[in-house]
């Protein structure tokens, strides 16, 4: 792609005139503006945020990087809530938001090329919880202003916003232990995601604090979908000695677990207790209403946008890490342990 200087030479104008065209300055004569724009179209010139800042302006565009398949993103209520919050906050601050979504785990799509090479954004917000994500090192290498949603073990020098996942999981499982449960199953998302590492740690810490042994067979993993929650719950219920309670690391997993438990002819919480994580709007209206850990999705969205815009407005800003508290919301899906027999089969 040509530089702004090359565009100026091809259009037979000064570099400052090209900058004024990019900024839509009224002092540029229409015939000159048309000539510069025609050269840009001919040579496929795309102005990037860095060049616009050098010219004394900003693109006022923020990229949101989602290292997930697009279908997964829009099926998960957590991500749709997060996206809505970020977009609203950016709009309130005078920025517009553009999505960049990876096709598969660990693969950088052409959308990432636009972010890294085209540099069309002033900065990016990235959902980062995947230890194997190859995009984060590239963003660091390109010195792209960014904020992560979800801490990353190798990004201590970066800005990030997260919830207290370990503490939230600890409180959820401690609640079940306090109700008398001794065999507590865990259904979680992928183990390579830090959010799941933290929530698993909280699960283990709560068991140890309650004087309970950790049984690896009670820990099963999949993705964050309701379908995974359904299948993983059946695996736990197929055990010779199934759990009397299940902790799901997301509400979507918990909703799938509810379907599986009902399919077995079991009652919640009379036969098996269940706790989720997220407190999505549907949690209050599930059957039964779901006990879950509320994470501050709206606050996380606003904090991430504000943190990035603060970087863009100031030449030197120290990296900040914001960890927001969670809250256990007790509803009707968690109850005391009872003797029961589990019907066989599905």
Could you give a quick summary of the protein structure above?
It is built from 13 helices and 12 strands. The protein has 346 residues and is α/β, with parallel strands linked by helices.
Describe the protein in words:
The protein is α/β, with parallel strands linked by helices and 346 residues long. The protein has 3 domains: 4-45, 434 Repressor (Amino-terminal Domain), CATH 1.10.260; 61-163 and 297-324, Response regulator (Rossmann fold, 3-Layer(aba) Sandwich); 165-295, Response regulator (Rossmann fold). It contains 13 helices and 12 strands. The strands form 2 sheets. It has a 6-stranded parallel β-sheet with strand order 2-1-3-4-5-11, with helices on both faces. The protein has a 6-stranded mixed β-sheet with strand order 7-6-8-9-10-12, sandwiched between helices. Helix 1 (4-11) crosses helix 3 (30-42) and helix 11 (226-237) packs across helix 12 (251-263). Residues 340-346 have low confidence and may be disordered.
> Total domains, how many?
3
- Major sheet: order of its strands? 2-1-3-4-5-11
Query: Which range does the strand content fall in?
Result: 15-25%
Topology order in helix (H) and strand (E) letters: HHHHEHHEHEHEEHEHEHEHEEHEE
Query: What is the highest CATH level, the class of the largest domain?
Result: Alpha Beta
Low-pLDDT residue intervals, each spanning 5 or more residues: 340-346
Residue share in helix:
40-55%
Main sheet summary: 6 strands, parallel
Write down the CATH topology of the largest domain: Rossmann fold
Instruction: Give the CA-based shape.
Output: elongated
Mind telling me the C-alpha Rg?
Answer: 25 Å
CATH architectural name of the largest domain = 3-Layer(aba) Sandwich
Q: How much is the average pLDDT?
A: 85
CATH superfamily of the largest domain: Response regulator
- Based on helices, strands and strand pairing, what is the structural class? alpha/beta
Distance between the termini: 59 Å
Discrete helix count:
13
Q: Find the count of extended strands (DSSP E, 2+ residues).
A: 12
